[in-house]
Design goal:
alpha/beta
Length: 283
């Protein structure tokens, strides 16, 4: 009971996340459905079993709970004394944040930040590392701009997912979404070299189906987003490969191309990092 009381404040509570107004709007069966899809009980069990229930150590504990393993390639390219922007593909939505967190913990201690979906940002043991990104709300995007600026101005390593959204299946191929230019602009402004990162893997057929339905009906909300935590738990027992490319000096991003063109070029470099890691993805 003492252990429970110590960690209870870290637990994920869907009722509290929804708040009193939404709880009144949603029938109880809908809230219970969300609890199952967001794996409230599983996440709280992982917190209970963790050796490090809060802080960077929880990245490793969460991966252990999920029995997710990974291999790294290209770490020799990194200078431990430099501030970087790590630009990564976005194949999954959850595992890559945990995997990168585990790798960065070994490389940089607790000196890093990772943007994640608002749902994952409610994982209290890791909130100090997460910056919530809500691609569905313009208000949240404005708030995000301030938080992003603070990250780049700090001494912490910064990781971004320039696609903003998880990869989708288009014409039968798992495809990374076009990359936004923000990380190029911030690289030049804050004199941070960019490190391309590629992570293997992809989400389930069900996730891609829901995303396709959302596009077909032109829904403002991608239904697949509601299943991202569920997709994380579907990756139990899988092994991933994370590959670091050679850092790209910030001076590379001159005015010979637009920032959007430079972003696309870095995206192409990330796609090439997939060679030899068993991942098939159309970048």
């Amino acid at each position: 009971m003492e252990k429970y009381n110590e960690r209870e404040s870290l637990f994920v509570d869907i009722d509290k996340i929804l708040g009193p107004k939404l709880r009144k709007k949603f029938p109880r069966f809908v809230i219970n459905f969300l609890k199952r899809r967001l794996h409230q009980d599983d996440i709280n069990e992982a917190i209970m079993q963790a050796e490090c229930p809060v802080g960077a150590g929880f990245f490793d504990d969460a991966l252990k709970y999920l029995n997710i393993t990974f291999r790294t390639r290209g770490e020799e390219h990194l200078d431990p004394d430099k501030r970087y922007i790590f630009a990564c593909n976005h194949p999954l939505g959850g595992p890559e944040a945990l995997i990168i967190g585990s790798v960065f913990r070994k490389l940089y201690g607790d000196g890093f930040k990772v943007p994640v979906t608002p749902i994952l940002a409610h994982l209290k043991p890791l909130t100090e590392f997460f910056v919530p990104v809500n691609n569905l709300s313009s208000k949240q995007s404005r708030d995000l701009g301030t938080r992003i600026a603070e990250m780049f101005e700090s001494d912490k390593q910064v990781l971004v997912f320039p696609a903003g959204l998880c990869a989708k299946k288009i014409k039968g191929k798992v495809t990374e979404m076009p990359w936004k230019k923000m990380f190029i602009t911030q690289s030049r402004r804050h004199e941070r070299d960019v490190v391309p990162i590629h992570i293997s893997g992809h989400n389930s057929k069900w996730f891609f189906f829901l995303s396709k339905v959302s596009r077909f009906f032109k829904l403002k909300i991608n239904l697949g987003m509601l299943y991202l935590v569920d997709e994380l738990f579907k990756q139990r027992g899988n092994e991933f490969v994370i590959t670091f490319g050679e850092p790209i000096p910030y001076t590379t991003f001159d005015r010979s191309k637009t920032d959007l063109q430079w972003a696309a070029e870095v995206k192409d470099k990330v796609a090439k990092l997939a060679e030899g890691n068993g991942c098939v993805m159309n970048m």
